[in-house]
Amino acid sequence: MNSSLNRFILCLGVALAPLALAAASGDEVVVVYNTRVPESKAVAEHYAKRREVPPDQVIGLALPTEENMTRAQFRNSLERPLAEAFSKRKLWRITAQTIRDTNNRPVQVEWTVSESKIRYLVLCYGVPIRVTRDENLEKAEAEKVRQEFRRNEACVDNELMLLPRIEQNWLRTGPYQNHIFGTTNTALLHPTNNVLLVSRLDGPTPEIARSLVDKAIEAETHGLWGRAYVDIRSTPDPAFKIGEDWMKGAAEVCRRLGFETVVDTNAATFRPEFPMSQIAFYFGWYDASVSGPFARKTVEFMPGAFAYHLHSYSGASPRSDSRNWVGPLLARGVTATMGSVDEPYLGGTPDLAVFASRLIYSGFTFGEAACAAQNVLSWQTIVIGDPLYRPFGTPAEELHKKLEADYSEYLQWSYLRLINVNIANGVPPVQMAAYLSRIPLTKESAVLTEKLGDLYSQLGKPSSAIEMWERALALKPSPLQRLRLRLTLAEKLPEQSREQEAVEQLSALLKENPDYPAKADIYQRLAALARKLGKEEAARAYEDQSRNAAGK
Fold it and tell me: With the CA atoms of 389, 394, 397 and 402 taken in that order, what torsion angle do they form, in degrees rounded to the nearest 10?
């Protein structure tokens, strides 16, 4: 490794050094399945095997087979049996502790978890998702809760995050303030601090649920690589400012920590024809059901990818591959996601900037980052994915060297992240372009060659940029990366009076993508190019094709 690379790797290592955290272990996990759903046990056994969960920590309970369960069913068949099993199997210990005032005088006695071997709870496919509203549960104290929060329906998972408080008789109406929201200290994410880290392995099929741990382990081994896409609504409504700030914060975290980051600021979501290639992260809002690029047949989620769409009911039907967002995202290959099973109100949804920061920069596990990002619990958020998943636990420099030694296909992404981190830390793009052009791997990588073209374009070298983008096309880009390259070339070539080549790029695009959602627009662009080339007959033919494609 040459001296310049050592210098840049040092920058990468300093910028991305995770906190010194203990490795997550299957010993810290309890897995729960529904004995009335045979597939539920299969998912549990697969997860336990992959994560080496002790057999005594895999628990089957007879639960309703529907997605909903009543408050009584939740209490009698899940919550209390689970807490009793933890105590009986000596997974935790609940004892009486005296709460004292500032003068050290006893105030009250509180039953709480004083010791715990476990931190995580994994619910498997087949375990109910929602606790339905119980009109008989309302208490006098509920009158202190704001009117809109006087509800006791909740996500099963989110309710179980407060299982360590089971003997404290806490109020079940409305959301419960998460006292460790935003923490950077993973030691606080523990049952002895009144919180259990809960997520589930679920989705439209048991096979999808089972695969979540496999994809997580792959990403832990090779790294989570790809691009970040953030969809900001740009709404002027001050009521939605907090959501806008979360989106912007998540985008900035991804950008500064080295991910090629695309931010859409249009009021609508990403358009269906948008070439969303090689997705590592997606944060967006606010469609009721899956839309845009995610509604297409091909979605390029990278191994380990996280995707989240903020909507009041995004997680209402996680076992559907077409309704809402969580289920369709899982069906299309995402590894981890979150959503809401019922109306949470905006302030009751996860802070995405906190989530991205804790996962990427701090090296938290998925379960830890998801908990730290929630300012309320006992509410509506569902977290789906392996809670032990820790994609950024390996220091960047160490992982880069490992990928080099393995001749890994992911090495190109490590270089891309290295380039982006250095630019984010003030290294001039001209310097990084020169560096990138000297890396031997660049000549073999569509990812790095496209980036070099982008840098040349930024530096005002359009001919060199076009040359790199054309070269990237010949280096086996992914289908949607190829689509993006062709669109970019079709836009830039005419600026160099190369209209015929732009025609060839758009024609190739249509041939490679027969179901392209914006065919009418492409034909209109072809018509305009044909006229510039003096081909009026061809232009009229393209216009006819545009009308046909638009259904006019």
Answer: -90
Q: Is residue 57 located within the same domain as residue 181?
A: yes
Q: Are 308 and 283 in contact (CB under 8 A)?
A: yes
The answer to the question of residue 14 being in a domain is no
Q: What share of the chain is helix, strand, coil (3-state, %, to 5)?
A: 50, 15, 35
Report the alpha-carbon distance of residue 160 to residue 156 in Å, rounded: 6
Q: Which residues contact 403 (CB under 8 A, 6 or more apart)?
A: 222, 223, 410, 411, 414
- Within-domain flag for 454: yes
Model confidence over 156-176: pLDDT tens digits? Answer: 999 999 999 999 877 888 899
Closest listed residue to residue 188, CA positions, set 84, 93, 116, 94: 116
* CATH code assigned at 449: 1.25.40.10
Q: CA geometry: angle at 406 spanning 400 and 412, to 5°?
A: 50
* The length of the chain, given as a count of residues: 552
Number of domains comprising the chain: 4
pLDDT one-digit tens code per residue, 78-89: 999 999 999 999
Which secondary-structure segment (H or E) carries 129? none
CA distance 211 to 216: 9
What is the dihedral sign for C-alpha 373, 379, 383, 387?
positive
307 and 354 both lie in a single domain = no
Q: pTM here?
A: 0.94
Residues 68 and 190 in one domain: yes
